[in-house]
Amino acid sequence: MGRLLKYELKGSYKVIGIILVILIIVALGLNFKIGEWAETTIMGITSFAVFGALLSAFIYLIELFRKELYEDTGYLTFTLPITGNSIVGAKLLSSLIWIFVVGTIGGLLGLLNAKRAFGPYVRFGSIFANQNFIVAISGVVSVVTVLLLIYFSITISRMTIRNKKVGGLWFIIFILLNVAIAYFQIKLIEWIPYYIDTNSWRIVKQGMNMVTDININGAMLQLSINGNVYLNIANIIFSIVLMVGLFLGTGYLLEKKIDL
Amino acid sequence: MSMKFDDKLPIYIQIMNYMKKKIITGEINGGDKLPSVRELSTKLRVNPNTIQRTYQELERENLVFTQRGMGTFVTEDKQIVKNLKKDMASDIIESFISEMKGLGFSYDEIAEVVKDRTKKEE
Amino acid sequence: MSYILEAKNLNKSYFKKKALNNLNLSIEKGRAVGMLGPNGSGKTTLIKIAAGILRQSSGEILIDNHEPGVYTKSVISYLPDRNYLPKWMKVEDAINYFNDFYGDFDRNRAYELLDFMKLEREMKVTSLSKGMTEKLHLTLVLSRKAKLYILDEPIAGVDPVARDKILDAIINNYNEDSSMLITTHLVRDIERVFDDVVFINNGEVILSGNAEALREEKNKSIDELYKEVFGE
After folding, report:
1. Which residues of C touch A75 (CB under 8 A)?
2. Which helix (H) or strand (E) segment is A232 a member of?
3. In terms of Cα–Cα distance, which of A55, A34, A57, A59 is closest to A44?
4. pLDDT value, residue A219
5. Which of A122, A206, B103, C202 has the fewest CB atoms within 10 Å, i.e. is most exposed?
């Protein structure tokens, strides 16, 4: 898988590089305008640029996966003596690396502009505060799950319809799966209302009556009661099972079921 | 080395004939080493197995012999080469005569025609 | 008798079409086999199934006594009729790629073949003509010491000079430990390379046998035989 990862990165770094260069130019350009334009404008456009860069990168990376299944390079990749899981792993890992790179640079640029724009009003909370930690992990799990879900949908759609003009099918499958998963997650917390209290790190049973905030953060479900975050145990397990299942499922399909 | 192939005939037979001609005319001498199977297959753009078969058949006719590890060599037996020349000639003569007879020539007329023709070449 | 490839009662159906119809085929070690037939006859379908990128509807196919999978991909060197190299690659990248993934890849042989084909390492894959692309693909495929080489239409759409180079390379590659399965509909130029030929149409084997034996028996070249079998 490491070998394939190397070539995945080699094949995609140029476009990612362009996205980053554009982002940096825009962000730095805005930085120079901090005296002239309103702070909100600066931050607004900066956020927009960061978001745009992330979105472009994301779409590009998904397209790379789709192209592998629908265009001629599949003849090269799928005749390599490697398992389907290696292929999924390499694609996933390279995408995560780029998303992390773009996200980090975007984040830093955003903070740079924010610091200069708002000066003393910006304070950085500790990254290791409980809640932020949970948010970070949830974020990673979300991104991984979404990517795997998209890969899975693309693979399924490739197996069903031979005509590649029906290009949007994977998106429909993706939406349907998302809905099914969300529905299942809600049902799950009804059936198994056991939570981890993130302050005390103890297992607690919780009803829904005192809930102030429900957050379906990607693949994990959090409840907030008066600012105290509770994580549903069944959902945590389900998220992990889902990730692994999508990974292995896609790997299996790519290795054993793909018809080019 | 160039050869025009007429793929109607098995290729190994065509190559055999080609080599036989060369041996008869002395272009390849007794004792000469023939090209290796690989070399010849590359030159003629032909499957090596075909060359292999060619050499085997030539060996069966005692025109060549193979020494393990050294290669395939033309026989030094001059009598064999002479006989080959005679055999190949007689094939040609046979078909010539039968075609001429097909045109209505008698044996005497055929001899006559041949004599005249060859005299001109002297 | 050990066969490098064995297909038994192989069927492949699509919605509208039956691409392979109870096809049977066996290839022995050390043989160069030509699979001859018009476009759409099933040649490419069979090849893709052997290469592991297509699944049969029913029937069995074994390569070196294994079902298509990771192992068979490691012993088959496949030349598809496609531009399958990523567009960002240069010739050198492609060589490195094959070297990284295939244990049986011989880098030196690759460089020799590149020289022979007059290809430069720095050339971008996208800048190559059809003939040069084919020559590059062939270089990559033949630089592996595989048990079975599968070449899908190696000389189609290629100019005569390149074609000769390609044929030379194919013949040079011949060795008694590996087999070659070559599909083509351009029979005349390549028939001398084959030990055996298989005529295929509508997903079935119409005729098969040793090339020289067929020439002797039918008193025709394989090309003429092809025209007779597939002609109107």
Report:
1. 53, 78, 80, 82, 84
2. strand A228-232
3. A34
4. 44
5. B103
Buried b (16+ CB within 10 A) or exposed e, C105-124: bbeeebeebbeebebeeebe
C76 domain-assigned:
yes
Instruction: Establish if B12 touches chain C: CB-CB under 8 angstroms.
Output: yes
Amino acid residing at A186: I
Interchain pair C73, A11: CB under 8 A:
no
User: Which strands form A194-197's sheet, in the order they lie side by side?
Assistant: A202-205, A194-197, A228-232, A220-225, A213-217
Closest by CA to B63, choosing from B21, B2, B4, is B21
ipTM above 0.90, yes or no: yes
C55, closest residue in chain A (CA to CA): A259
Burial of A48 (0-12, 13-18, 19+ CB in 10 A): exposed
φ and ψ of C19, to 5 deg: -80, -35
- pLDDT less than 50: residues of chain C: none
Burial class (CB in 10 A: 0-12, 13-18, 19+), C210: middle
Q: What is the pLDDT of residues C4-41, one digit of tens each?
A: 999 999 999 988 889 999 999 999 999 999 999 988 89
CATH number assigned to the domain comprising residue C169: 3.40.50.300
The residues spanned by each domain of chain A are: 1-124, 130-260
From the first residue on, what is the mean pLDDT of each consecutive set of 10 residues in chain A (260 residues)?
Answer: 92 94 88 74 85 94 92 94 95 95 89 72 54 76 92 90 68 90 83 72 63 55 62 83 95 91
Rounded distance between C-alpha atoms, residue C98 and residue C101, angstroms: 5
Tell me the three state secondary structure of residue C84. Answer: coil
Q: Which domain holds residue C190?
A: 3-86+147-230
